[in-house]
Amino acid sequence: MRIAIDAMGGDHAPNAPVLGTIQAARDLPDVEFILVGRDAEIRVITSEFPPNVTIVHAEDVIAPNAEPVKSVRKQKDSSLVVCTTMVRDGTADAMVSAGNTGAFMVAGLFVVGRMEGIERPALAAMMPTFKGQGVLLMDAGANTDSTAKNLVQWAHMGQAYMRLTHGLSHVRVGLLNIGSEPGKGNELSKVAYELLEHDCSHFVGNVEARELLNGACDVVVCDGFVGNVLVKFYEGAGMGFLESLKHIFFANPLTKLAALSMRSGLKAFKKRFDYAEYGGGPFLGVRGVLVKAHGSSNPRAFEMAVRHAYNMQHSGLIQDLEQSIHG
Amino acid sequence: MRIAIDAMGGDHAPNAPVLGTIQAARDLPDVEFILVGRDAEIRVITSEFPPNVTIVHAEDVIAPNAEPVKSVRKQKDSSLVVCTTMVRDGTADAMVSAGNTGAFMVAGLFVVGRMEGIERPALAAMMPTFKGQGVLLMDAGANTDSTAKNLVQWAHMGQAYMRLTHGLSHVRVGLLNIGSEPGKGNELSKVAYELLEHDCSHFVGNVEARELLNGACDVVVCDGFVGNVLVKFYEGAGMGFLESLKHIFFANPLTKLAALSMRSGLKAFKKRFDYAEYGGGPFLGVRGVLVKAHGSSNPRAFEMAVRHAYNMQHSGLIQDLEQSIHG
């Protein structure tokens, strides 16, 4: 298996992608990792590249806020576009990037291409829950103004994903809605409910946002505008909560001492809500394994994203999806 | 001033509405409070009704999950419909209910009626922020599939509300969106951005959900589907987060002891995020002061909602809104 790594994408590039990849490469000696980016900038980071890590030089870098369509079209020699081209050509089986999310999706759509039968690929985000393994939200922002049919396709892809990568046999799908009874919601959710009821096994019906973190379902589908708002809000609220707690714990020497007694509990709590542990979001519905790592990924978060790409490829997810669409 | 109270609405009715109202009535002796509901059930709660609290008997109660339009139409003698009828007829200046939210909005729309010039009244929700006084979100769920023009009207109403009830002179309005640059988002947000830019003073542009709790704006406008998802998610996440903390604090005798040292900090933190302190959400754009208290309101939360209704009426908000629409 060969995994292409966009070494130049993300707030801490090239350090975080390079160091995260090296860590993953040590644990996965049979996998070949290809760091794509500016050769000199990559080499200067360390002198100890494992034998299964190689470098492919790409001169250009797509800026974090660059206009996605234009930059993918024009910056053919950017690390991101080279990575996706490798997946398209079969010189890589999977790729990971922490760069510009819009450009990542555009490159996925136009360089790698959609799976036949999938109208709109979707970005999936694993949201940590208070109970259980988390909930996979689709779409986390690739598509706005989506259709009910889109949501049904995402439900199917989400189910296959959770089955193969998390080992769940009954993957419960919920429709994010503003009421729990059938018939509630906006035009999209009313139609989507009908379709999902007939066309999705283990559909648990409408799920209100209040119940999302209590393990109400394993996959939740919604329009990408709503999903993106939710994922970003969760991130902001989580960071704010942790920040507030820090102030309480570090208020004075006594509270600092007291916080020590809670160390293990706090550590477990923080780990559960640390995005770094969740390994980035897969872009599902394109003809290859594409994983988007968080823009602010540190080496650990990037490493988890790389492992995630490995697991997806190893599980045969793409083949499974293609079969289930056409079978 | 006379305030009508739906004594039968909410999870803890009639206790919470009655006890909350009595508390507010003691502090506001010049205001007349009218408890609307089943006379016998209300009287049995206490023998000490202040002189400025009277009871108006209403036999019927709209159930929490009753179909809103049907129940408002048929249950004319329900506590909720009687309250709104009093506002319409001028026998009350304001009303508060913790009952069925859908029925509350339907009664507001069809009994009290829209303000002339307002296409869609909106439910406003004050969301606690990590910094500052909180952010007013409109619409929190009264309207799905809303138009850009709706959002502009909500922006104006939200500004008047924050100016009069929170004493802000420059009320910053943000458009909830999935990117910060102009031109981002779905069809609705693209058009709404253009309109707000031309027609709203102190428009700060797109606000991403990640920034919402950092004081990025005082009022944020969005479609009611998105708003409702956000408000409910916040509630669920907040409760889950506090629950998790409790487990950490009560893990063993040592952590319990340690938690004592952080008592004041934790108390302040909890108070900031306690919905009870925020006094319910006003339904803005109808011809009267209508405040929706949270369904799970305890006496304290209901009291705050009553005070909220008093403040809104006292500030002359409705007159101000009517003038600004027509002036």
From TrEMBL, chains A, B:
Gene Ontology CC entries for this record: cytoplasm
Gene3D superfamilies: Isopropylmalate Dehydrogenase
Catalytic activity: a fatty acyl-[ACP] + phosphate = an acyl phosphate + holo-[ACP]
EC class: transferase
InterPro entries noted in UniProt: FA_synthesis (IPR003664), Phospholipid_synth_PlsX-like (IPR012281)
Compartments reported by the entry: Cytoplasm
Known pathway: Lipid metabolism; phospholipid metabolism
Enzyme Commission no: 2.3.1.274
Major subcellular site: cytoplasm
Protein keywords: Acyltransferase, Cytoplasm, Lipid biosynthesis, Lipid metabolism, Phospholipid biosynthesis, Phospholipid metabolism, Transferase
Keyword Cytoplasm: yes
GO function terms (MF aspect): phosphate:acyl-[acyl carrier protein] acyltransferase activity
Pfam families linked to this entry: FA_synthesis
Function: Catalyzes the reversible formation of acyl-phosphate (acyl-PO(4)) from acyl-[acyl-carrier-protein] (acyl-ACP). This enzyme utilizes acyl-ACP as fatty acyl donor, but not acyl-CoA.
Oligomeric form and interacting partners: Homodimer. Probably interacts with PlsY.
Family: Belongs to the PlsX family.
Name of protein: Phosphate acyltransferase
